[in-house]
Amino acid sequence: MAVSLGKRKRPEPKKVVAKKTAKAEKSESDSDDDIRARFQRAFEARFKPLETPKVPVRQDASGDESDEAEVQADSDWSGISDEEDAVEVVEHGPGIELDREEQKREMKAFMSSKPPSSKESISNIFKAKSKPTEDEAGESDNLKHDLALQRLLKESHLLDPTTFGTAQSTNEPSGKSRLKALNLRLEDLGAKKGIMDQAKMPLSHLRGIKAKAISRESKRRKEAAENGIILERAKGTMKGKPERKRERGVDGPGVGKFRGGTLSLSKKDVRAIEGPKKSGFGKGKRR
Amino acid sequence: MTTAPTSAPLKFTGSKYLAQRLTLATLTGRAVRISQIRPGNHANPGLAPHEVSFLRLLDAITNGSQIEFSYTGTTVLYKPGLITGSAAGYGAEGGVLQHDLPAECERGVSYFLLPLCLLAPFSKVPVNVRFTGPGVITSSTEIGDVSVDTVRTAILPLFRSFGIERNIELRVLQRSNTGKDGRGGGGEVQLIFGHQVRLPKTLHMLNAGRVKRVRGVAYSTGVAGANNARLIETARGLLNQFVPDTYIFSDVSAAPLIAAPERNNPAAKKKTGLGFGLSLVAETSSGAFYSADIASPPSGGEAPEELGRKCALQLLEAIEQGGCASAVAAPTMLSLMAMGSEDVGRITLGRDVVGSEGVVQLARDLRAFGMSGWGLREGDEEEEIVVSIVGRGVGNVGRKIV
Fold first, then answer.
1. Distance between CA atoms of B298 and B274, rounded to whole angstroms?
2. Per-residue confidence at A187, pLDDT binned at 50, 70, 90?
3. Distance from B46 to chain A by nearest Cα, in Å?
4. CA B25 to the chain's CA centroid
């Protein structure tokens, strides 16, 4: 059976159907095409019409196709099958040429003191690290923009109107607000301690800072009271609160201090153990 | 503490396979008496320097070994102790056991490394031995020892298939070829074997696969690096036709200096161990290794091109023999299989490898030490034989007790 050259090309679906109905004899490939066409029609009925890849050369050829087919129908040449179309390429190259960087890696992997592991080949690693395609690049760009927007929304309260214009260019806060933003991000990630907190400080400085804070607060309250503004209730000052007992070690004594093999009790401890002293009157009341 | 009933020591004769027998004795805990060691050699009867050195090494890494020589050194009685490794307090300094090889040593350092690698998985603590002294030859020798590079790249990866893979290192601190008149070098090698097991895993290697890549190391000590380039050029020229993924690395180092005191200059030193060599390793898709080794003879007079060609041909021959282990690696693998759990392990070997003198002798020696016999059958491919070995579950005595 003569399969014309034109059969290999993807014809318009209608055309194919017409041909199929006209032809009594159907080859395997023909029936395959038929099924394909049916599927396509069913698909197109439900969804959008499919785009058939149009190759201009093929369309030009389709004009002479019928003539050619007629000519070759008589000859016993059965045409070129699709399998033969694919060109098998065999290369006898000089071997895998590694560039300098790869050479160094491979050398390090092989010439180290450890027995070389056969699991990962260096060349495979390089294959995997191919250049990102345009889609991937766009995706990563989108992700970047997304992150930037999220951050801007979160940290917008840090933006200083005076520096707003200058910081805009980089989209990143600068100066002190940069540190603040960084602190926020770290807190988001679960940092316990801010980066702004000073770890160590002379006690005199710390006292000074605390005293200043207290005086500032008291001043504010005083001014508010003078102006008749009602403020939030003052938090209980440190002095008023009773000191909570410190956690003791499991093996330590429940009371007093154990030092140098002796348990020493302070007067306070003794008083606590003895309980409130009973006065003479109290004794009299008991029956 | 009760002591096991002492059986009469196993008797062997001859100096051949001395290291192998001593290793098996240490692994199985059987005493051996080896007699008639070079009785006919009137100039140097008895144990050779490298054999004495090997006994000293065994003494160093075990605890409670007894070694008795006869007056002439033609008979040695060895009662092995426990393999302790480089335990502190047994001669190891800072966890490293230093082993000096004498200048008269003719064998390459792999003569010591291969048995040590076989013992190390069964030791109590990690083995860390540094070979120093004027007798360390890191290159391959004409007697048939492989180079340290081959040990590292072709033998040590095999332990992986037995489940022994962590903390294994072989550091070449100083390279050295064979010194003048074929003895002595000046190299320095450190073996760290930090993975100890109770029993090696049962091995099933039936398909050797096909060679996927060839790697190699060309080394020259104290001679021009151009020798390396010439070695590589010819070896690659031959191998590239078969395996495009061929790569040979070059290592150029200065000649080692060893002390050579003179009367008016007691601090004098001299260069030794000059030369060059090549180690090639072919790896297959299923993890089998074939290796080839060559080094310039101490007398010189061989062109690097010729040696490179020989080495490549040697590698092709090893590949042709087939199987999952080359003749170099077979004794190590077979011994480890025999030490494994009481289960049948199988390995495919080339017919020529199974029929080689070393492997046949190993089978006999294992039998003598009370191990089970081997089962042989035809492999799937021609020229291949499947060797089935039932382990005896001897394994690590030190691990069993502690």
1. 8
2. confident
3. 36
4. 17
Q: CA–CA distance from A202 to each of A41, A70, A198, A209, A216 (Å)?
A: 84, 103, 11, 11, 21
> Could you give the CA distance from residue A95 to residue A188 in angstroms, rounded to a whole number?
52
Of B381, B374, B320, B312, give the one whose Cα is nearest residue B344. Answer: B374
Burial code (b: 16+ CB inside 10 Å, e: under 16) for A58-93 equals eeeeeeebeeebeebeeeeeeeeeeeeeeeeeeeee
Q: Provide mean pLDDT across the span B343-359.
A: 94
> What is the number of alpha carbons within 13 Å of residue B398 lying toward its C-beta?
23
Q: Which two tokens stand for residue A202?
A: 């002379």
pLDDT digits (tens, 9 = 90+) for B216-228: 999 999 999 999 9
Vertex B75, ends B74 and B81: CA angle to 5°? 140
**CB-based contact (8 Å) between A111 and chain B?**
yes
The distance of A124 to chain B (nearest Cα, Å) reads 12
Domain assignment present for A131: no
Distances (CA, A) of B240 to A85, A103, B232: 31, 17, 11
User: Is A115 within 8 Å of B251 when comparing Cβ atoms?
Assistant: no
Instruction: State how far the Cα of B119 lies from the Cα of B211, in Å rounded to an integer.
Output: 30
Domain contains A270? no
| Among candidates B168, B244, B246 on the partner chain, residue whose Cβ is nearest the Cβ of A114 | B168
Q: B276: domain range?
A: 205-320
Task: Answer yes or no: is pLDDT of B140 > 70.
Answer: yes
By the 8 A CB rule, do B179 and B138 touch?
Answer: no
**Domain that includes residue A22, residue range:** 5-79
Q: How far is CA B316 from CA A249, B78, B135, B238, in A?
A: 73, 40, 31, 10
**B379 three-class SS:** coil
Q: Please tell me the total count of domains within chain B.
A: 1
Report the C-alpha gap between A265 and B318 in whole angstroms. Answer: 86
Contacts of B152 in chain A (CB under 8 A): 113, 115-116
Amino acid B89: pLDDT: 72
Rounded Cα distance between A155 and A164, Å, is 13
Question: Nearest CA of chain B to the CA of A106: how many Å?
Answer: 9
Tell me whether B291 touches chain A (CB under 8 Å): no
User: Is the Cβ of A66 closer than 8 Å to some Cβ of chain B?
Assistant: no
CB B136 within 8 A of CB B186: yes
- Tell me which DSSP letter residue B120 carries: G
- We report the CATH number of the domain holding residue B313 as 3.30.360.20
3-state class (DSSP) for residue B148: helix
